[in-house]
Amino acid sequence: MFIAASGFAQWVTLNSGTIYNLYSVYFTDSNTGYAVGETGTILKTTDGGTNWTTQLSGTTERLSSVYFPNVNIGYAVGVSGTILKTTNSGTNWTIQASGTFNSLSSVYFTDANTGHIVGDITTILKTTDGGINWTLPVPGFGEYLTSVYFTDANTGYTVGETGTILKTTDGGTNWTTILSGATNVSEWLFLQSIYFTNANTGYVVGRKGLILKTTDGGINWTAQASGLDSTLSLFSIYFTDADTGYAVGNGGTILKTTNGGTNWTPQPNEFSGGNTALFSVYFADANTGYIVGNYGIILKTTNGGEFVEENHLPEYAINIFPNPTNNNLTIKTLQKSEIEISNIEGQIIKRINGNDKSTTIDISGLASGMYFVKVKMEKGIVVKKFVKE
Known about the structure:
By secondary structure, the chain is mainly beta. The protein has two domains: 4-308, YVTN repeat-like/Quinoprotein amine dehydrogenase (Methylamine Dehydrogenase, Chain H); 313-388, Immunoglobulin-like. 0% of the residues lie in helices and 46% in strands. The chain has no helices and 36 strands. The strands form ten sheets. It has a four-stranded antiparallel sheet, with no helix packed on it. It has a four-stranded antiparallel sheet with strand order 3-4-5-6, with no helix packed on it.
């Protein structure tokens, strides 16, 4: 017997362990990822976001961007010219001499040794020796650059204040201004993020819900309909393939396209329509994505954020005991299942593959309080409450 069919968006809130704003997220494989933010915060996960540990960054400056050219070597950049590097997957971070006190907003590497950083006052830094030396090939002229992206070793783009889009074809030695093509682009004040799916096709997002697309390597840009009103900004964009992309912003905004930006669809999440700002989106694979935002928010999806219909079975379809409990919780089902335990905020704490008879879970490490156990079976799901004493 089924109770009802209901739906839910597949962005779930993870427990980051911090209340500081997080501005950038990056994964080196399906399990290992990093997030950076206020007061020098660097978080790392090795289990796909279930647990995050704080790493010693050696700075209290705000970190705005993180990038790993390989699994061992990574960089984080931030205000006051801060550049950090790790060579052991984040176990240790060392401060590099940037040669500037300007705020740095975005870092991108084309190989283990060659990297580019952009920031305030049109700061564009380049290294060819893994960060031992950083050079400033282009004198600054006042613009705030927010994002940098390279399609190959020579061709790169950076965007920023007052609709600025710059392009290089010689590995960053020279940069030329290209027109965004948006009407009254100065009204948008900032272009916030840039991403290319191939050598010719790229996207830019910014304030007032702006989304731009080029199909000719930046020669021409056309505005796409984001569906957002002028009070909402987009801060980050990421594509998993030529057609499928995501953009995030304030108001808990998550947009998805499956047709190369022709249409963008909002993805509901618990922060939709609120005051939460989502600053960065990254996908570890086609379906598994992460978003970070203010107050330490980290969201995760394992199905591309799609809205899922599911059938709710009556509570008597499973049996859980003892309840309340101190150490162990036993779940009896009639078929194999997937089991999730979450707290009252909806944060998933444990995921277990259950058998078709009885599964016992150690919950001794949980704090006292109310929790939910969600059991997914072939014909539907059951959700029950239990109390950890």
